[in-house]
Amino acid sequence: MFCGFPNKTLPLAGAMALLLSGCSMTDKNQPPPPAPEPVAAPTPPPPSYVIKDVNFDFDKATLKPMASQVLDGVASELQQQPGVPYEVGGHTDSIGSTRYNQDLSERRAGTVRDYLVGRGVSGSQLSTRGYGESMPVASNKTAEGRAENRRVEIRPVK
């Protein structure tokens, strides 16, 4: 008996295991595995345009004079994204019948689309939709809120 073990093979096997555990079974001259391919960052979605300074007078679908400067900037941005379809959405306040407001919102969207096409944006890139009074961004109880609701938004089509 050796240190409480019945034979010498157990301590010898343990010593060999300790010695060999530091040895590697791989070739030290083998090149490291190739680095993983870099993953491209996802392309950010195209921007939406809630056009703050393009509001309409009550019961009108004509652009105000200050709208041209804002829409010229939007046209420039859209021309840089020729393959991205956008929806021009028209909105109204709640005064008037639902049917009338629907028609008015469609005319407002068409007015903005026509302006953008006149500034070089492809007509095939733009669709229009009227939302009537269904999506207010402000209270329709005040004149200021109603003015904010008479607007157009331009959003990418998903």
Can you characterise this structure?
- By secondary structure, the chain is α+β, with helices and mostly antiparallel strands.
- The protein has a domain at 49-156: OmpA-like domain (60s Ribosomal Protein L30, Chain: A, 2-Layer Sandwich), CATH 3.30.1330.
- The protein contains 4 helices and 4 strands.
- It has helices at 9-21, 67-79, 98-118, 143-149, and strands at residues 49-55, 86-90, 126-130, 151-156.
- It has a 4-stranded mixed β-sheet.
- Strand 2, helix 3 (98-118) and strand 3 form a beta-alpha-beta unit.
- The mean pLDDT is 84.
CATH class of the domain at 49-156: Alpha Beta
CATH architecture of the domain at 49-156: 2-Layer Sandwich
- As laid out across the biggest beta sheet, the strand order is 1-4-2-3
Indicate the mean pLDDT. Answer: 84
Number of helices: 4
Strand content: 5-15%
Structural class: alpha+beta
Radius of gyration: 35 Å
Set down the secondary structure blueprint.
Elements: H1 9-21, E1 49-55, H2 67-79, E2 86-90, H3 98-118, E3 126-130, H4 143-149, E4 151-156
Parallel strand pairs: 2-3
Antiparallel strand pairs: 1-4, 2-4
